[in-house]
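Sequence in, structure out. First:
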Amino acid sequence: MEDDTKNLKATRQHSDAAADLQKMGYKQEMTRSRGLSHILFMTLAIMAVPYGLAAPIATSLVAGGPATMIWGWVLVSILTLPLALSLGEICAKYPTSAGAYYWCFRLASPRHRMLLSWINGWLTMVGVWTISLSVTFGTAQLIVAGAGIYLPDWVVKPWQTYLIFLGVTGVTVVFCVFFNSILPTIDVISAYWTLFGVIVILVCTSVKAAAGRHSAAFALGHFDPTPSGWTPGWAFFIGLLPPGMVVILAQNLGRSPLTAYTFAAIGMTWPKKCTTLPRAITWSIPIGFICGVFFLVPILFTLPDIATLLAVTSGQPIGLLFQLIMGSKGGGFGLWFIIFGIGMFCAISISCAASRATWAFARDAAIPFHRTFALINNRLSPSDGGIPLNAILLSTTIQLLLGLIYLGSSAAFNAFVGVAVMCLPTSYAMPVFISLLNGRRSVADSPFSLGKTRGMVLNSIAVVWALFELVLFSMPAVLPVTPTTMNYASVVFVAFGLMSAIWYLINGRYHYKGPEIPEDVKQESFD
C-alpha cells in the first residue's frame, strides 16, 4: 500500500512537471526524477570541491601559495553568490534543461533574440564540453600522481597520460549509457564520499603533519608569486583558477585556477519544481565554501616545501603532498584515493549533465545533424524514459579530440579549465545582463524574486565578475611564455566562435528558430 502511494505521488509529480514544461513549449521526453535533496546531492557530486581545489593546485602554488589558495577561495565564493542568485531568479521562472540560451531567447527582444540565443547556446556547449573534459582529464592526471607515490622516478609521457584519459572517459560513458537509472544513487554516494573524505583528510593531516606545522601567519598569509613571473597582484588573480573550476561546476546546476574551477558548474541539472533548483543553486555556494575551508585549512597548516612540490616530474603534486604530510607512501596513497574517488564521481555526473545540455541544444536544431543528436534511445533505459545516446557520443568525441592538445602542450589542462571558465560564466551572465537592460521587468514575477534594488546590485556584480573572468583565464599561468606553457584557452575559444559563426551563416540563419516557446508568448513584443 505504501509503495502504491509513493508510485502514485511520483506519477502526479511527473505529470505536473510535464505540464509545466509543456507551458514553455516543450514535450517532456526524459524523466525528471530529482527533488531538492537529490539536486543538492548532485550539486556536491558535480562541484567536487576537494577535487576541484586539488587537481589544479599547482597553479595556486605557483601564483602565490597559501594566501592565494585560502583568500582566493573566499573571494571567488563571495563573487559567485550574486551570479547564483541571479540564475536562480531566472530559472525559477523558466526551469528547463536548455538553460541560459533559452533564457536569452525569452528575455531578449524579438529583433535580437535569435542571434543572442544562438551565441549563448554555443558558449554553453563549448563550456560544458570543456568543463567535462577538464574533469576527466584532471582525473587522469590524478592517476599519474597516485602512481608517482610508488614510482617516483617514472617520467610519464604525454601519450601515456592520454591513454589513461581514454580509460577514465570510457568509464564515464559506460555509466551514462548503461547505468542511467542509478545515477541519482551515485550522486548520493558521491556526496557522502566527499563529506566523509573531507573529514578524514582533515583529521589525518592535522594529526600526522610529518612535513612539519606552520603558524597561522604562514598558513593564511604567506604569499610568494615569484615562480609565476607575474606581478604580485596579477599573480593572485591567476591563482584563482582552481576556485573558479569549483564555481563553474556549481553553476552548471541550473542548466572554475583553484576556486573558480570548483564552482564552475552551477547550471547543469533539471528540476522537478521551479523553486527547487534556485534553492539548490543558492545553497550550493555556502555549502561548497564550507567544504572547501575544511579541506584547505589543514593542508595549509601542514603544507610541505612548495619548491619540492612544484619540482614533481608529473606536474601534479597532490600525491607527493599527501605522502609528505602523512610521512608514508601508504598514508599518502590513502588520502590520494579519496580525491581520486571524488574525481571519478564528478566525471560521471558532469558527463551526464553535458550530454543533456548537448541534447537540449540539438533539440532546437542549433548544431550540425541536429535530428540525429536530438534522438532519445528508449532501449537502453526504458524505465527512465530513455537516454540521449547520440548526444552522449557527440559530447565524448569532442572531448577526446580536444584532449589531443595535451600531446603538444603540458599546460593543456589549464587551457581546458580556462575555456570552460571563460564560456560558462559568460553564457550565464548574458541572460542576467539582458534582464538588466530590460529593467528586470521580465523577472519581476519570478517565484524566486530578488527584489528590484537588491536584484539590480546582484545582477551588476554577476555581470562584471563574469567579464573579468573572460580576460583573466585566457592568460598563461607563468612567464615567460613558451609553446608548452602557453594557455591555449583563447585559441580554443576563438576556434569554436568561428565554427559557430560559420555554421550560423551556412545553416543556422535559415533553419534555427530558437527554442520552442508557447503560442501566447510568440506574440509578445519588447521595447
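Second:
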Amino acid sequence: MSGVAINQVGYLPSGPKRATLVTDATEALPWQLADGTGRVVATGTTEPRGTDVSSGQNVHTIDFGTHQQAGTGFTLIADGATSRPFAIGADLYGPLCADALKFFYCQRSGIEIREDLRPGYGRPAGHLGDRDVPCGAGAGDYRLDVRGGWYDAGDQGKYVVNGGITVWQLLHAFEHRRGLDELTLDLPESGNGVPDLLNEVRWELDFLLRMQAVPSGLVHHKMHDREWTGLPTLPHLDPQPRELRPVSTAATLNLSAVAAQAARIYRKYDADYADRLLAAARTAYTAAETNPIRYAPVEDTVGGGPYNDDDVRDEFYWAAAELFLTTGEQQYADAVLASPLHTVDVFGPYAFDWAATAAAARLDLALTPSELPGLAGVRASVIAGADKYLAIQQAHPYAVAYAPPGNRWDWGSNSMVLNNLVVLAVAYDLTGETRYRDGVLEGLDYILGRNALNLSYVTGYGTDYAKNQHSRWYAHQLDPTLPHPPKGTLAGGPNSGLQDEVAQARLTGQVGQFCYVDDIHSWSTNELTINWNAPLAWIAAFAAELG
C-alpha cells in the first residue's frame, strides 16, 4: 500500500509545504514535484518516520518547502504513488473563510433562507412557533419567546452552551483577525452599515438573550423537540412540539461571557444594543453567583443532546474575564485573579470546547488590552500552551497538533485540532515567531487532506471531501432532491468512541484516524455543528491574513 497525503487545497508560497507518504519502505525514497503540465519542478528524498501511532501506518515525510512558485495542478510522486492535485498560492484561504462563515446563515431558525442568497439551500422559515414555547418538566410554569438563533447541529435543537462558545470564537476572530470587518457574507442584513459577521452573530446573540429567564436572571440550558425526529426532516416540516429545558449555571455564565464580550465589540455600531448586552451579562453573572449551582442533567437526552457539565469553575472564570475586559471594573478583576484556574495550565489535550472554557478566558486576557495585574504571566501561559501543541505536532508524522491520551480520539476531534491551532496563532500574535505561524498552516493541512484517509474534512474543498455529514436537511444521501451540506462545512472527524450503529458496524477495531466514515447516519464521527465551523473560520481567517 502506498499513497501521498497532501493538503488538497494547497499551500502558501512562503509557508511550510510537507506531505506524508505511506509506504512499506524503511529507507529514504526519492520524490518529485510536478507542476500542472507534468514538468518536474523539484526533487528530493523522503524522511522516514516509522510507524504512526494514530494510523498504524509506516510513513515518511516529504518536505518541498523550497519550491515557492505559485500555480495549480501540482502533484507529488513517490514510491509509485501520485498525490491528489493541489495549488500553491497566496489567495487560497479567503474563500474558505467566507464559506465557513456563510454556513451559519443556512443554520438560522425562524427565518426564510433565501434561495437568491444561497442557491440550492432556500427553504421556508423553520419553527416559527418558537415565539411561544412552554417549559418542560421541571423547567418552570411559564412560556418564553425563544425564536431565532442557529440550529445547533444535525438536529434542530438550540443549546446555549454550544451557542455560547461559537459566538465567543466568531467574535474573538472579529476582534483579533484582520479583514473580517469588511467581509461580505450575502445576508439579508448586508449593507446595513454593520459588518456582516456581526450581523450573523447577532442572530444567535438575540436568541441567547431570549433564553434568560426574567426576573431570576438565570438562563435556560436549551430548547428542542419533545422527541427525536427522523432523517430527513426539514425545519419547517418538523411535527414535534418544542420545549424549554431547565436553567443551568453553565448556560447563565455562557450568556454572561459572550454578552459582555459582544458589548465591547458592538458598541461601535449600536450603542443601545451594547448597553442591553452588558446589562444582561451583569444580571446573569450576579444570578450565577447568588443562586445555588444548577447542572444540566446528563440523562436529559430525549429530543436533544444533554450538553451536561458538572464543573462550572471555568465558566465563572470566563465570564469574569469578559466582564473585566469590557468594563475594567475591580470586582471582575478580583474574580479573575481569585479564580483557581487563573494560574494553572488550562491547555490540556485540547484547548477548549463548550464544556471547557478556561482557555477561552486566557486567550482573551492575553490579547485584549487591559490593566490586569500579572498580564505578562497570562501571556507566558498561552505561549507555554502553544509550545506544548507545537511539540506534539512536530512529533506527529501527519503534523497533527493533537495527541489524545491512549490514542482515543474525541468526538469532534477535527474541532479540537483546530482549537489547538488557535492557541498557536495567538502565540504568533504575541511573539511574532514564525514557528507558531508555520505550525498553524501545517496543522490545517491535516483538515484538508493530509491525513490517513486522504480526505478533506471540509465539504467542497479538495478533490475528495466529506459531503454526507449527519443532518436532517442537508440529506442528499437519503433524498436526492435535498442538498449536501453547504460548501465550507466541517465534518466532526475521527472518534474512537464509535457511539452510532454505522460506526460500530464499519469501524470496530480501527485505530485513531481511521475511526471515521462519511455517512449521514454516523452522527458520532460525521456530524456538523456550529461550534466546529467556528474554529474552521477562525483558522481560515488567520491563513487568509498571512496570504
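Remark: The domain at 94-121+130-453+527-546 is CATH 1.50.10.10 (Glycosyltransferase).
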